[in-house]
UniProtKB/TrEMBL annotation:
Transmembrane segments: none
The protein, known as: S1 RNA-binding domain-containing protein
GO biological process, one term: translation
Lineage, highest ranks first: Bacteria, Bacillati, Bacillota, Clostridia, Eubacteriales
GO molecular function: mRNA binding; structural constituent of ribosome
Species of origin: Sulfobacillus harzensis
Residue ranges occupied by any S1 motif domain in the UniProt entry: 8-76
Function comment: Binds mRNA; thus facilitating recognition of the initiation point. It is needed to translate mRNA with a short Shine-Dalgarno (SD) purine-rich sequence.
Biased composition (Basic and acidic residues): 102-141
InterPro entries membership: NA-bd_OB-fold, Ribos_protein_bS1-like, S1_domain
Disordered: annotated span: 76-141
SMART domains, per the entry: S1
Pfam families the UniProt entry points to: S1
Highest taxon above the source species: Bacteria
Length: 141
Protein backbone atom coordinates (compact mmCIF):
# COMPACT_ATOMS: atom_id res chain seq x y z
CA UNK A 1 0.00 0.00 0.00
CA UNK A 2 1.26 3.48 -0.77
CA UNK A 3 2.61 5.41 2.19
CA UNK A 4 0.77 8.56 1.07
CA UNK A 5 -2.73 8.82 2.51
CA UNK A 6 -5.67 10.42 0.71
CA UNK A 7 -9.00 11.76 1.92
CA UNK A 8 -11.71 9.15 1.31
CA UNK A 9 -9.28 6.25 1.48
CA UNK A 10 -10.06 3.29 3.77
CA UNK A 11 -7.05 1.86 5.60
CA UNK A 12 -6.35 -0.43 8.54
CA UNK A 13 -4.92 1.11 11.68
CA UNK A 14 -4.26 0.25 15.30
CA UNK A 15 -5.91 2.05 18.22
CA UNK A 16 -3.10 3.58 20.27
CA UNK A 17 -5.16 5.49 22.82
CA UNK A 18 -8.73 6.09 23.96
CA UNK A 19 -10.09 9.30 25.51
CA UNK A 20 -13.57 10.47 26.46
CA UNK A 21 -13.88 12.30 23.12
CA UNK A 22 -12.39 9.77 20.70
CA UNK A 23 -9.75 7.21 19.83
CA UNK A 24 -6.29 7.77 18.40
CA UNK A 25 -5.38 5.42 15.57
CA UNK A 26 -1.87 4.79 14.19
CA UNK A 27 -2.09 4.55 10.40
CA UNK A 28 0.07 2.41 8.06
CA UNK A 29 2.45 5.31 7.35
CA UNK A 30 3.11 5.78 11.09
CA UNK A 31 1.05 8.94 11.47
CA UNK A 32 -1.74 9.16 14.04
CA UNK A 33 -5.29 10.28 13.41
CA UNK A 34 -8.34 10.81 15.61
CA UNK A 35 -11.66 9.00 15.39
CA UNK A 36 -14.16 11.32 17.11
CA UNK A 37 -16.59 9.50 19.42
CA UNK A 38 -19.45 10.33 17.02
CA UNK A 39 -17.64 8.39 14.26
CA UNK A 40 -17.15 5.12 16.20
CA UNK A 41 -20.55 3.50 15.51
CA UNK A 42 -23.98 4.23 14.04
CA UNK A 43 -25.56 3.95 17.49
CA UNK A 44 -25.01 6.46 20.32
CA UNK A 45 -21.62 5.82 21.91
CA UNK A 46 -21.28 6.82 25.55
CA UNK A 47 -17.94 5.09 26.09
CA UNK A 48 -15.66 3.98 23.27
CA UNK A 49 -14.34 1.17 25.48
CA UNK A 50 -17.73 -0.51 24.99
CA UNK A 51 -16.74 -0.95 21.32
CA UNK A 52 -12.93 -1.05 21.12
CA UNK A 53 -9.82 -1.29 23.25
CA UNK A 54 -6.23 -0.21 22.77
CA UNK A 55 -4.23 -2.23 20.23
CA UNK A 56 -7.41 -3.23 18.33
CA UNK A 57 -6.98 -3.31 14.56
CA UNK A 58 -9.70 -1.22 12.90
CA UNK A 59 -10.71 -0.19 9.40
CA UNK A 60 -10.93 3.62 9.19
CA UNK A 61 -11.94 6.08 6.51
CA UNK A 62 -9.86 9.23 6.20
CA UNK A 63 -12.28 12.15 6.48
CA UNK A 64 -9.84 15.05 6.34
CA UNK A 65 -6.22 16.08 6.68
CA UNK A 66 -5.33 19.68 7.50
CA UNK A 67 -2.14 21.70 7.03
CA UNK A 68 -1.22 21.22 10.71
CA UNK A 69 -1.04 17.47 10.20
CA UNK A 70 -4.29 16.60 11.97
CA UNK A 71 -6.08 13.62 10.46
CA UNK A 72 -9.81 13.05 11.06
CA UNK A 73 -10.92 9.43 10.79
CA UNK A 74 -14.17 7.44 10.90
CA UNK A 75 -14.70 3.83 11.87
CA UNK A 76 -18.44 3.84 11.12
CA UNK A 77 -18.02 5.27 7.61
CA UNK A 78 -15.43 2.59 6.82
CA UNK A 79 -18.06 -0.12 7.36
CA UNK A 80 -19.69 -1.43 4.17
CA UNK A 81 -23.06 0.12 3.44
CA UNK A 82 -25.99 -2.29 3.38
CA UNK A 83 -29.56 -1.91 2.24
CA UNK A 84 -30.73 -3.43 5.52
CA UNK A 85 -33.13 -1.74 7.90
CA UNK A 86 -31.28 0.93 9.80
CA UNK A 87 -30.10 3.01 6.87
CA UNK A 88 -32.00 5.65 4.98
CA UNK A 89 -31.48 6.63 1.37
CA UNK A 90 -31.07 10.32 2.22
CA UNK A 91 -29.82 11.51 5.58
CA UNK A 92 -27.54 8.68 6.65
CA UNK A 93 -28.05 5.97 9.21
CA UNK A 94 -31.00 5.90 11.55
CA UNK A 95 -30.09 6.32 15.20
CA UNK A 96 -33.03 4.28 16.54
CA UNK A 97 -33.05 0.74 15.18
CA UNK A 98 -36.17 -0.46 17.02
CA UNK A 99 -39.38 -1.16 15.11
CA UNK A 100 -41.78 1.78 14.98
CA UNK A 101 -44.38 0.07 17.21
CA UNK A 102 -41.75 -0.24 19.97
CA UNK A 103 -40.85 3.46 19.68
CA UNK A 104 -44.57 4.36 19.90
CA UNK A 105 -44.96 2.12 22.97
CA UNK A 106 -42.10 3.96 24.65
CA UNK A 107 -43.67 7.34 23.79
CA UNK A 108 -47.02 6.26 25.20
CA UNK A 109 -45.26 4.99 28.29
CA UNK A 110 -43.48 8.34 28.72
CA UNK A 111 -46.74 10.24 28.26
CA UNK A 112 -48.43 8.04 30.87
CA UNK A 113 -45.59 8.69 33.29
CA UNK A 114 -45.81 12.41 32.63
CA UNK A 115 -49.58 12.47 33.24
CA UNK A 116 -49.12 10.49 36.45
CA UNK A 117 -46.40 12.89 37.59
CA UNK A 118 -48.60 15.92 36.83
CA UNK A 119 -51.54 14.38 38.76
CA UNK A 120 -49.36 13.54 41.77
CA UNK A 121 -47.78 16.97 41.66
CA UNK A 122 -51.18 18.68 41.59
CA UNK A 123 -52.41 16.51 44.49
CA UNK A 124 -49.37 17.45 46.56
CA UNK A 125 -49.87 21.14 45.80
CA UNK A 126 -53.53 20.93 46.86
CA UNK A 127 -52.55 19.19 50.13
CA UNK A 128 -49.94 21.87 50.77
CA UNK A 129 -52.45 24.68 50.09
CA UNK A 130 -55.04 23.07 52.40
CA UNK A 131 -52.46 22.64 55.14
CA UNK A 132 -51.21 26.23 54.77
CA UNK A 133 -54.75 27.68 54.61
CA UNK A 134 -55.82 25.82 57.77
CA UNK A 135 -52.81 27.22 59.64
CA UNK A 136 -53.62 30.76 58.53
CA UNK A 137 -57.25 30.35 59.57
CA UNK A 138 -56.20 29.28 63.07
CA UNK A 139 -54.41 32.54 63.77
CA UNK A 140 -57.57 34.61 64.00
CA UNK A 141 -57.75 35.67 60.39
Amino acid sequence: MASELEVGQIVEGTISGITHFGAFVVLPNGRTGLVHISEVADAYVKDIKDYHKENDKVQVKILSMDANGKIALSIRQAQPKSAAVGTREHGGPRRDHRPSHERRAQQVSFEDKMQRFMRDSEDRLQDLRRNTDSKRGGRGA
